[in-house]
Amino acid sequence: MARSIDPAPRAVRGFVPARTDEERFLMRHVEDLARAAEGRGIARYSGFLSDREQDLARAALNRADVPESDHHFEGGWPGAERKLLCLEPEGCYPASPLCCVKLTCRTLSGAALPGHKDYLGSLMGASLVGSEMCIRDSLGSLMGLELRREALGDIVLLADTPGTAYVFALETAGELICRELLQVGRTEVTTTLLSLDEVPEFPQAERKTQTATVSSLRLDAVLAAMLHCSRGQACEWIAAGRVEINHLPAESAHAPVYEGDVFTVRGKGRFGLTALP
């Protein structure tokens, strides 16, 4: 929560339209899926989508006049970040392609368990959620199987079950993982293909709420309050390309912020602006 000493009318952030050929292609693909689902009366599913891609998909569905009752997003568990778009027209027989693979390490007593780097290889993106659970949506070891990114959802590691990871994936990818993935780092693993009904309930992430008064509702001021740093330091992170607002690179330290914005600072974590009193 942030309170500004500079009173300004309350506003909301507008949708950011597609900015690249890849994003425009995604929106056209979603519209094609929607037309196929409606025209044939059968369920259609996308691959796994990031937060930004989900926003683009919603915009495409609005443009195609797809009723909200005919679609939803599903990632396999309540806290999922990466999700499938599920287009399920009334009267169809849905069969979600989503599954989960449980990876269990086989190590000698006292041996070091694989860490996140071992599971994921190079960390392309990561977010730490609370003290109980880590979610990494990078590819790492699984890329060695030549899986496409949209075939993989969240990869969840739980603090209370070290040596175990849950990989959400499309069924075809899950079957490939079970056949081919024998090792993570230098540790052998066993794989178990789970239906979503067999996935355990993960602990809820613990989030801390803080209140701050800022001089203005600008990105640098709000980041400085969130991270307990100077505005100069916040500006350096923004200039270095380490800051995203709602999963898009922040282009200016002077950018306005809005209630509901999500800020990702590489190396520092993810923060949400829950309210502007």
Notes on the structure:
The chain has 6 helices and 16 strands. The longest helix has 20 residues, at 21-40. Helix content is 24%, strand content 27%. The protein has a 7-stranded antiparallel beta sheet. Helix 1 packs across helix 2 and helix 5 packs across helix 6 (231-239). The chain is α+β, with helices and mostly antiparallel strands.
The average pLDDT value, as a whole number, equals: 81
Helix/strand-derived category reads alpha+beta
Per DSSP, what share of the residues sits in E-state strands of 2 or more residues? 25-35%
Portion of residues within helices: 10-25%
Major β-sheet annotation: 7 strands, antiparallel
Number of helices: 6
First-last Cα distance = 8 Å
Tell me the total number of β-strands: 16
Q: How are the strands ordered across the major sheet?
A: 6-7-8-9-5-11-10
Shape: globular
Contiguous uncertain segments of 5+ residues: 120-140
C-alpha-based Rg, rounded: 21 Å
Element order, helices and strands? Answer: EHEHEEEHEEEEHEEEHHEEEE
Briefly, what is this?
Helix content is 24%, strand content 27%.
List keywords for this structure.
single chain; 277 residues; alpha+beta; seven-stranded antiparallel sheet; four-stranded antiparallel sheet; 6 helices
Strand-helix topology:
Elements (H helix, E strand, L loop, with lengths): L1 E3 L16 H20 L3 E6 L1 H13 L7 E4 L8 E5 L10 E9 L9 H5 L5 E4 L3 E4 L15 E7 L5 E7 H10 L2 E2 L2 E8 L17 E3 L4 H9 L3 H9 L3 E3 L2 E2 L12 E4 L3 E4 L5
Parallel strand pairs: 1-12
Antiparallel strand pairs: 2-4, 3-4, 5-9, 5-11, 6-7, 7-8, 8-9, 10-11, 13-14, 13-15, 15-16
Helix pairs in contact: 1-2, 5-6
